[in-house]
Amino acid sequence: METIFDGMNFLFQVHARMAWLLIVSSVIVLWVASLFKIIHGSYSLPKGTFFNNLKNGGSVNKRNVLFVVAHPDDESMFFTPTINYLTLRGHNVHILCLSIGDADGKGITRKEELYQASAILKVICNVVVEAFILARYNVVPHQQVSVLDHPNLQDGFGKVWNDSILANIIEEEITRNNIDSIITFDNYGVSGHCNHRDVHYGVRKLLQASSQRKIEAWELVSTNIFRKYSGPVDIWLSSLNPMQSSHEVVHCLLNEQPRKSFLAMAQHSSQWVWFRKLFVAFSSYTYVNTLKKM
Ligand SMILES: [Zn+2]
């Protein structure tokens, strides 16, 4: 009797191990297949319909696109798929970062790190020249990247950012750089950080103002925690989004150069600690962005 019981126990353990092996190998196959799809896509550079309106002559209408973010590193950690998509197609990309990210007293360093990341993301051209101007003259080196250090817009949980102040600042930036499109956080702000969410409400406030009705604005759709940490696998679920949304305009953009997310994020040396390295590897925002029209 004991021998039969031992035998059944052994069989159960073998089955359990095989089930685990099957699950782990399926996850690995899915990761590899998803990465392959992303990298294969980058070779063929699919045309995409997002910001692909043609002018009368048949060439693509180049946009002046402003990314409105809360902290230095938001652009690299969350928006790289969209930034790559736009720069590879020759659109002019601008970044407005509404704080220097001084919650830990590293704001001055983080501001310079944003310029370096912007050079990797091809938002600005020559980081050596830009850094020289910044160090020598202490002025914003390039109009395509603006970083604010406003007394009422300081980095941190529990710091409420007024939407009217935000709307005025964004409006000034739009006028200064002849911006026609905005990309920003949605009302959850990927991580739920209050500064990200306030930025969204600032853009909303601006859109409600009659003078800015002609501005086209898009929000980065926040996903649930399982999709957020599913890495490249999320591309399959994200690509279903535009098909499901009949009443909303939604675009799913794959990161044609996922390596750039790592390279750009690595420029933020003061933030490049082990858990953020893991985040960038496992975050779906490294591989895909879903944008919804606001
Ligand atoms: Zn942030």
UniProtKB/TrEMBL annotation:
Keywords: Membrane, Transmembrane, Transmembrane helix. The chain crosses the membrane at residues 18-39. Its EC number is 3.5.1.89. GO terms for biological process: GPI anchor biosynthetic process. One of its GO terms (cellular component) is endoplasmic reticulum. One of its GO terms (molecular function) is N-acetylglucosaminylphosphatidylinositol deacetylase activity. The keyword Repeat does not apply. Belongs to the PIGL family. This is N-acetylglucosaminylphosphatidylinositol deacetylase.
